[in-house]
Amino acid sequence: MYSVVADDTSALPMSVWGLVIGIIQISFYLAFRRKRIRGRRARKKFHQKLDSESESDYGIEIGSGPLAETKKVDLMAYVETPLSLKKDAGIPPEALKDEDSLFMDVLDVRLHYKMWESERKSEAEDRDTTVLLHGFGGSCFCWREVWEPLKDTTQCLIAIDMPGSGLTSRPLEQRENVYGGKYACALLFEVLDKFGIKKCNLVGHGMGGSLAVFAAITHPTRVRRITLISPMTFMDPFPKFIRDLFRTSIGKEMVVALVRSQIGEMVLRKAWYNKKRIPEVALRRYENVVKLRNWHSALIELSRAESLKITRKHLSQGLSCPVGIIHGENDQIVPVSNSVRLQADLSNTGSATLLHRIPRCGHVPHEELPDEFMHAYKQVIAHLNTRSSAEYKDTKLEDDDYHPGSRVV
User: Fold this and answer.
1) What confidence score (pLDDT) does residue 80 get?
2) To 10 degrees, the CA torsion angle through 358, 359, 362, 365?
3) What is the pLDDT of residue 326?
4) Which label site among 10, 104, 169, 207 has the fewest CB atoms less than 10 Å from its CB?
5) How far, in whole angstroms, is CA 387 from its chain's centroid?
6) Interhelix angle 207-218/181-194, nearest 10 degrees
7) Per-residue pLDDT, 269
């Protein structure tokens, strides 16, 4: 008989790992148990309110067409339980719509978007159009601080909620995964075709920046200029260990629960340099969005979809349009070095580029410092509009560059 004696040096690490795993298991058990207890009461109260109160007491339109109802629901009262998750229950997207929200059916999804057109009439194909592409976890809502100022820079402004984000529907029974990057690109140009727009400017934040670059590479004749905000090029929004977790039943519940609770808010706070600037409306919006119908199932499908990870091979093909980059210097999600590398690669391929860095700013400059963002954006497009050949330029907003009314801390 043979016996194996463990090395003493491995005893301590193994015991530590066992302790850590035990604490995690207990924490998840307590979290799920508390959520189930609280969920039963809150969910029962939520549905009792829907059934008992009259339509005249409500003010939120749910649904559209002849079957539409108008009900005012306290969305924070809705707490999901394991049973409701299995039934794909949740709040309908229309319940969170804004006054200027618009919906259209396109490529198997009910797309939520916002659109503004200048009073100056012109043909759609000749109109200067700017399309805003949000980042991972974002939506049309993230452009709220710069929506009005951006109208001064274009003739037509469009913001789109991509599948899996915002108020766009989250279909689950489709022949192909509608949450992939290539599908998002096809959806983008399908929308432009519906409006008769032949050429546009793209503004992409985070993962939306990768979509903008991919769109410019695959449809060079239809993109006039792209502006990237803290672009997530060279990066995958879903790390490999997260994708692996989603392949297990336990992993799905763990990740979804974490994103819905503490982790989601933690990432939101990490996106801002000055945490005190985060408006309460943004936190509340996030809490409501994760309660949308099919939200958790769409998150799982999104993790399985192919991401648009832009590589040097993509960039070696070159871009026929100029590229502007705006990045917060204190970005903790996508380091500014990522944009420096991107700019250098683009410049080497002969593309006109400009990198504008904003100090004391995190991952979402258009939300955290909208005035400084607009100042940088106008400088970027003014520079790119006058350059047709490749030019490498890296600028930084100094204190003296901020226009009156800036909100620098």
Assistant:
1) 44
2) -30
3) 97
4) 10
5) 30
6) 70
7) 83
Query: Exposure pattern of 32-64 as b/e (b: 16+ CB <10 Å)?
Result: beebeeebeebbeebeebeeeeeeeebebebee
d(CA 148, CA 381): 17
List, for residues 88-120, the tens digit of each pLDDT value. 567 888 888 999 999 999 988 999 999 999 887
Residue 169 token pair: 């529907």
Q: What is the mean pLDDT of each run of 10 residues along the chain (409 residues)?
A: 40 54 58 48 48 38 37 42 50 89 92 91 75 92 96 96 91 78 93 94 95 93 95 77 66 66 69 90 82 81 77 78 95 93 86 91 96 96 70 47 32
Reduce the secondary structure of the chain to three states and give it as a string.
CCCCCCCHHHHHHHHHHHHHHHHHHHHHHHHHHHHHHHHHHHHHHHHHHHHHCCHHHCCCEECCHHHCEECCCCHHHCCCCHHHHHCCCCECHHHHCCCCCEEEEECCEEEEEEEEECCCCCCCCCCCEEEEECCCCCCHHHHCCCHHHHHHHCCEEEEECCCCCCCCCCCCCCCCCCCCHHHHHHHHHHHHHHCCCCCEEEEEECHHHHHHHHHHHHCHHHEEEEEEECCCCCCCCCCHHHHHHCCCHHHHHHHHHHHHCHHHHHHHHHCCCCHHHCCHHHHHHHHHHCCECCHHHHHHHHHHCCCCCCCHHHHCCCCCCCEEEEEECCCCCCCHHHHHHHHHHHHHCCCEEEEEEECCCCCCHHHHCHHHHHHHHHHHHHHHHCCCCCECCEEECCHHHCCCCCCCC
Predicted confidence at residue 268, as pLDDT, reads 79
**Residue 111: φ, ψ to 5°:** -85, 130
User: What's the CA gap between 137 and 205, in Å, rounded?
Assistant: 11
What confidence score (pLDDT) does residue 83 get? 43
Taking the C-alpha atoms of residue 258 and residue 285, their distance in angstroms, rounded to an integer, is 17
Q: pTM of this prediction?
A: 0.74
The pLDDT, as a whole number, for residue 369 is: 96
Give φ, ψ of 204 to 5 degrees. -120, 135
* Residue 201: count of CB within 10 angstroms of its CB: 23
Residues forming a β-bridge with 112 = 103
